[in-house]
Design goal:
Strand order of the largest sheet: 1-2-7-4-5-8
CATH class of the largest domain: Mainly Beta
Largest sheet: 6 strands, antiparallel
Shape: globular
Distance between the termini: 16 Å
Number of strands: 8
Low-confidence stretches: none
Helix content: 25-40%
Number of domains: 2
Order of helices and strands: EEEEEEEHEHHHHHHHHH
Radius of gyration: 18 Å
CATH topology of the largest domain: Immunoglobulin-like
């Protein structure tokens, strides 16, 4: 990223693997607002943030299915928890289908977090870990756990039929679950994961299919659908406006 932004990511404790993808921090320490584009990435994010123009507040975002423009205000400090989908049923215990392509404000003291918790990202992660651990279920549906394990490990490359057979759960029931909990079908979600998995390839300059896309045309069409631009334009990422793409670190 450019010098206007600071980004830091911490992976969760192993006990949270089924539910949390990462903890991350983003800070705009420039003296001006920044126009950014938020790309669909298959995550549900819990944000704790403040800026020069807004007091501390907490927001929960649902899944994104299209690119969305936003303004990252000057002096914004944002701490976030990116959740895997299993967390919606077992940690939040409340569907996010009503905030598809949207977000909602949560109480100012949600999970007992406040502005003082923005002083240290490391201490924030420790507190969030302890809170989520206290909410862990005694047991989870083994079919759902296996389903999400396969979806994430395959980057959404398997068909709904293949996934259904592997977890012994009908396609119809899986799609009903996805629509009720998250607001989209399983196929739509897998397409988002494949798009996200292409970020690192595009950043390396490999502007051709890598994640089981049918052909080059299908790949370009998918990238344009979820980013609004071609793979070449996404790679150029002028002004670091594609925020998730900017934070990808190549190994």
């Amino acid at each position: 990223m450019n010098n206007d932004f600071d980004f830091k990511l911490i992976k969760p404790d192993k006990s949270l693997d089924d539910f949390v993808e990462s903890f991350w921090m983003l800070q705009n320490h420039s003296g001006q607002d920044k126009n950014i584009v938020i790309l669909p990435d298959g995550r549900v994010d819990l944000f704790f943030s403040r800026s020069a123009s807004e007091p501390f507040h907490t927001t929960l975002s649902g899944l994104e299915t299209k690119p969305d423009t936003a303004i990252l205000s000057t002096k914004t400090v944002m701490f976030a928890i990116s959740f895997k989908l299993l967390a919606i049923e077992y940690i939040f215990r409340d569907p996010v289908s009503d905030v598809l392509d949207n977000a909602k404000h949560l109480p100012a003291d949600f999970w007992s977090f406040g502005e003082d918790d923005m002083n240290s990202f490391e201490l924030f992660c420790e507190k969030a870990t302890q809170k989520i651990q206290s909410l862990l279920p005694e047991e989870t549906d083994s079919r759902k756990r296996k389903l999400f394990d396969i979806i994430y490990s395959s980057n959404g490359s398997l068909s709904v039929h293949e996934l259904s057979e592997k977890v012994s759960w009908s396609s119809r029931q899986i799609n009903r679950y996805f629509n009720q909990q998250f607001g989209i079908s399983l196929k739509a979600y897998c397409n988002i994961l494949r798009f996200r998995a292409s970020f690192s390839h595009i950043k390396e300059g490999r502007l051709f299919p890598q994640e089981d896309f049918a052909d080059q045309s299908h790949f370009i069409k998918t990238v344009k659908k979820f980013s609004g631009v071609s793979p070449k334009e996404l790679k150029q990422n002028q002004n670091d406006r594609f925020i998730q793409f900017s934070t990808i670190t190549l190994k």
